[in-house]
Input
Amino acid sequence: MNDVTVRLATEADRKKLEQLISDCYEEIYPNWYGEEVVYSALTHMLRIDPQLLQSGRYFAAEIEGELAGCGGWSPASGDAPVGQIRHFATHPKFMRRGVGSAILDRCVAAAEADGITVLQCFSSLAGEPFYAGHGFEKVQDVSVMLGGDEPFPAVLMERKLG
Ligand SMILES: CC(C)(COP(=O)(O)OP(=O)(O)OC[C@H]1O[C@@H](n2cnc3c(N)ncnc32)[C@H](O)[C@@H]1OP(=O)(O)O)[C@@H](O)C(=O)NCCC(=O)NCCS
Output
């Protein structure tokens, strides 16, 4: 079944996409993180970076006209041809229907077209199986500080492109 369409996201999508990200974290993260980390994620990790949303590198996926997921990428700072996966989430209702994969494919194609040779991802623990299934290899466990005092345990992963 592949009824997923992917389009560019814009500022006009912000409210709905941030709600989608909130619904996603609220459902998924309690299976992977303690209460304080989930609370911190729901407080500090919902806002989509305005620069990302305006960059032409952040996408929304729809299934039958309904928003089903989002995600994007950005070039890493510096001169290296490295890209970073940014803010992926699938609505709980649409998990495991190819939404994340469709957005990731779009990101990979765009990054390759821009000469990126390595995609990096600071994956949540919940996202690790998804990225591992898409050619990303674990580099190391990391703790990401996202605002507030609660470190967010994550996994740095990398995929070579080209
Ligand atoms: C990561 C995430 C975006 C994946 O979205 P999704 O739309 O469900 O992914 P897809 O349906 O495209 O998954 C395709 C494949 O990835 C792998 N995969 C995805 N989720 C998985 C899971 N929970 N466990 C194991 N494998 C998984 C499987 O190989 C799956 O194929 P299958 O369903 O045929 O087995 C989603 O799980 C999510 O929103 N997680 C919570 C937020 C998060 O962790 N975001 C990433 C932060 S960097």
Notes: The chain has one domain: 4-160.
